[in-house]
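Question (not urgent): is this output format expected?
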Amino acid sequence: MIKLEEEIINKLLNAKDSIKIIVRFNDTDTMGAVHFKNYLVYFDDGFISFMKNIENPEDHAIKREIVFPVKNINILYENSANYGDHVIVETHIHELDDKSITFQHKIYRESDNVILANVECVRIVMELETKKLLNVKEFFIKFV
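Got this back:
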C-alpha cells in the first residue's frame, strides 16, 4: 500500500496543466492593462483546470463538498497583459504535505512568451459543511 501511495504522490508532483485565457475588456484598467486583481482570477482558473485534469470524475470534490481555501499567496508581477492578449497559465504542484498543498503558477503572453507573473499559492483542504481540515496527502491519495 505504501508503494501505491508513493506512486500517487509522485504522479501528483509531476502533473502539469495549462489553460489559455483571452483577456477581456473588463479585465483591464484605465491604462488598458490587466488590473492586478484579475491575475488572481486567472490563477484560480489554472487551479480549477489542474484539478479537473487530475481528479476522478466519479468523485468530484465539489460534489463531496470539499473546498480548497487559499492559506497564503505570493505574486511576483513581471509584466502586463492587455485587452485581447492570449495568456497561458501553467500550473503544477510544488509541495504536498499533510497540512497543505503548494501550487506554482506561471502566466505568460502566448504571442511572445513573456512572463507576466509567477505565483506560489498554498491551499488547504476542508469539508465545506463542517469546516474540518483534512489531511491533504490522504485526501489526494483517495481523490486521484
